[in-house]
Every structure is written in C-alpha cells, then in structure tokens.
Amino acid sequence: MTTTATAPVSPARPRDEPPYGGAVSKPPRQTGRHLMLATIALLWLLPLLWAVYTSLRPYADTSKHGYLSWPRGISLQNYTDAWNQSGMPHFFWNSVLITVPSVLGTLLFSAAVAFFVSRFDFRWNIALLMLFTAGNLLPAQVLITPLYRLYLLVPLPAWMSDSLLLYNSTWGIIAIHIAYQCGFCTFVLSNYMKTIPGEISEAALVDGAQVWRQFFQIILPLCRPAFAALATLESIWIYNDFFWPLALIETGDKRPITSALANLQGQYFTNPNLIAAGALMTAVPTLLVYFALQRQFISGLTIGSGKG
Amino acid sequence: MPSASPTAPPAPAPQAPATGASRRRPRRLGPGDRLFLAVVIGVPLLALLVFVWLPALASMGLSFTSWDGIYLSDIHWVGLDNYHQILTNYPPFWPAVRHNVIWLLFTALLPTPFGIFLAYQLDRKLRFTRVYQTAIFLPMVLSLAVVGLIWEIIYNPDTGLLDGILNAAAPGHHVDWLGDPDLNLWAVLVASAWRHTGYIMILYLAGLKGVDPALKEAAALDGANGRQTFLKVVFPALKPVNVIILVVTVMESLRAFDVVYVLGGGVGSKPGMELLSLLITDNIIGESSHIGYGSALAVVLLLVSLAAIGTFLVQNFRKEDR
Q: Membrane spanning segments where (chain B) (predicted)?
C-alpha cells in the first residue's frame, strides 16, 4: 500500500543519488581499520605459515640450526617422504570411500525428509523436524558407548566387511555419518523447500503427476543451489571428521586420512617437519574445496545457522 | 491406442467438487503416493532412530547399570550407584567439569565477542574485506586433527616456535606448554579460539547483512557513533542470530574433543586437560571398560546439551506452528 503511494514521487528526484555531489559517496579513509584488520589476518595465518615453513625445511637443517632460524635449504622432500613412508595414498582413498557415499546419502535422505515435512500438511511434521535437528546437535560422545556395542553386534556379509561386523567397516562409518548429518541438512533443506510456492505442487497434482515425480522432477531440481551449498559443507565436515573412525574402526589401515594422521604423529613424533608436511597435505583437499567453492561453503553454513 | 480414451472412467468428475473443500490434504494421495511418502520418511527416520536416538537412550539406560562390556547377560542394575561414584569417588570428574566450564566461559568471553567485533568491522564498504574474511575464516576449514598438529609444532618444548622465541629472548627459559597441567588447558584454548573466531565472524556477518541499512542511517542521523549504533541498534535487532551464536558457543564447548585429543598426544585425557567428552571415551575404549561410568558421564553431558538444544529449537520453531 505504501509502495503505491510513494511510487509517483520517486521519479521526481534524481534516482537516489546523494543530494550533495560525490562528497558522501566517497568512502572515508580507513587506514587505521586496514592496519588493524591486516594485522589480525596475518596473525591468523601465522600458525599455518609456520607449519608451511617447517614442512619445507630438511630435518637435518632444523635439528642443527634450530627451528627459529633462516633456511639453508628448501625442498619438498618432507612431502614425498610423508607421502611414501606412511601410506598416505591409501588413507586418502579410504577418505574418498567414506566421504563420497556419506555426502550423497545424507543429501538424499535429508531431501526426502525435508520434502515430507515441508510440502505436506501432516500432523507430526514439526515434531519430526525437531527430532532430526536435535539428533544432529547431540554430542557424538553421548552416542558412542552404545553405538560401539551395537556395531560389535551387527553382522555384515563378508563382501561388505572383512571383520564380518559393522564395527571396523567403512559401511558403519558411512551409516553413522548419514544418520547424524541428516539432521542439519534436513533443517536447511526444509527451510529452502518452504520457499518454493505451494502452487507448483498443486499444479503438478492437478496434472496428475504422482508424488515421486513431483519430488524427483520438480522439487529436487529447484533445490540445486541448496544442494551445492550443503554438498560443499558436508564434504569438508565428513572428510574432517576424526571421532567416528577413531572409535569405530580398530585397525589403522581402514581409517580415513584425518584419523590416520594420529598414527603419523605417533610414528614420527621426533620429526615435526614430516608431521607438518603430512598435516598440510591432509588439509589440501579441504583448502581446495574452500577456495573453489567459498560462496557455497559460507552460504551453506549461514542458511543453516543464521536463519531468522 | 487412441480408441482407449472413451473408456476412461468418468466417475471422479462429480466427486471432485465435494472433496475440493479440503485443500492440500493428503486425502488426494493415491496408494502409490502413500507408499512413496512412507518410504521417504520411513527409511531416514529408521536410520536416525537406530543410529542416533537409540544409542542416546541406551546411554541413559546403561548409566544405571554395571557392565564390563563383554556379555550382554552381565549387565546388572545398580541404580544411581554410577552417579554416586563419579561424583564422590572418580578423581578426574570435577576437574573435567571445571575445565568444561572454563572452556565455555573463555569461548563466550573472548573469541565469540571478538568474532562479532570483526564481523562488525568487516560489514562495510571496505577494500580487501574478502581477503581478511578468508584469512580469519581459514582455520575453520581445517580438520581439528590438523589444527592440533599445527599447534603441536608451535607448542613443542624442544622444537616449537614459542619456546624458540622465548629461548632467543631469554636463554634458559623453557616452558612445557602442553605438559604443564596449569598451562596446557589455556594452550589448547588458544588453538580452539583460533578456529572459533572465524566461525562466529561468518555467522554474524550473514546476520548483519540482513539488518535494514535504514536502521543504521537513522541512528547516524540522530548523532549516534559507531559503537552506540552497534550496541543500541544493531545488536538488539539481531536477537535471533545472537541466540544461534550463543547456542553454537555452548555446543562447541561441550563437544570439544579433537584438538584436546591430538594435543594431548592421542592417549585420552591428560592431567590439566580433562574434559567430559574425553573421560567418556577413556571409559569405553581403554582396556578397563567401565561402561556404566562412561554412560553416566554421557548422561551428564546429554542433560547440559539438551538445555542448549532446547533453546535452539524454541528459537527456530516458535514462529512456525503453522
């Protein structure tokens, strides 16, 4: 109502330009602010840069001259050593085997639940949504004791797990990731699906489209931006997860790279240069994803938690 | 094929207006649709119940029992005995509680306000603002295990950066940052704050972007300075975001595990760095499995978490009771 009243007035004024020339639009000098923010940013990068510096120096150099010294030689030797000596390719592959199915499964499950609670008027929708959201907020340690015992009790066929149990198997880790992460994604996706006009579903129903076609051919494609954001975020989270494999996988060679890092630490605790190289290599995939998909990552984080 | 069309049942036509009154009700769904919806909700719900809620409830149940974790038949009901034991006869319990409280207070009083402050500084027309944001947010992308190792390289008494600087400034000084029980918690808190600040900053920046700029302009016209505008106008307008940030801070403090685990050397809790989450894993994975103790500790953690989770749910679902 107010917009129609003010609409005729606005063309009279020159389009929202500041009244007095460029004086207002010119940003004030912010040298002080830049100085402060640059200092903080540099301070924040310092630990990472120190790790990079350490990782590039040969162990002999640092052990002779100390770590706080000018470099006498820079090489990637520590990276090749860490890569070859501690079986990192194998652990990276384990991470892929866990992360990819977990992310896909989480997105599929949470899209299904979000579709159910946001596109239909069922009685228990809010309660269901709360159950899923709250599930993701429980600290993992609250679940771990019974989960550990449960995994020891559930048998799996030999082609799925050579331990013949859910314990010590990649499947077990994927299952808990999907069940646990589903809550967060359901929460985000249901908020997203609520913004899709109900008329779209109405029209589809009138046209005789069955619900499954509505889900796969109408709603899912419309949620693509939310999927992109969540896939980015969840890949990083699941890849970075440390706790589930630590508690639910006993043998070292089945653990993903993030948990296997602890082995590297135990194996080479006297050689920080090698540990730095290993830690940084572990961080490379997440850093690449973050730099390539920064917008998706941040929007995933903020639509989830910053809504309202 | 086209000749089949006249045989289409004309029956639904007169019926449709009668049922049309109930809009968007599941009544119109056919059996195929119902089956699809049942699967769509049933499978994820089953996964959630089996892998998340069943263990959470089982933790509560086991907290009243004594069990060595080997045979299910060995579970004995002991009532509140585990709780009595951890409160009176389990030395690491009270230090762990104290450390969790310190963790929460530290995080709530330093990195959280600092993240908010940075968000406010960055939420304006400013060159390089993306560069600053990227740098400060970067630690959040790293796994906590990697964060732990990066700080290990800084804190290490023999080879670390800090002692290197200390030794250069005052030869002979030697501080065991991660070994000294009076210091190590704070060393770990610094590492955790390094990560937490960027998280809060990004969450708050998103909130600030949603604030109507007219509000700030009005405050500026009334002669409020930057600090007054923030404290009196912007901060109160962001109540929903503030609640989220409070919940995030509490949850992160309760969940704290990975950095402590890695910086503690990967062997469970260490003097000076006991936390409830670490004591729980001590009690189930170590050779002396006290499932009852671990579960009672988990229930303590669960109850505190539920308060935070409840706040979050109330904040988010209050407006939406249809």
A: 35-58, 101-122, 134-154, 185-208, 229-251, 291-314
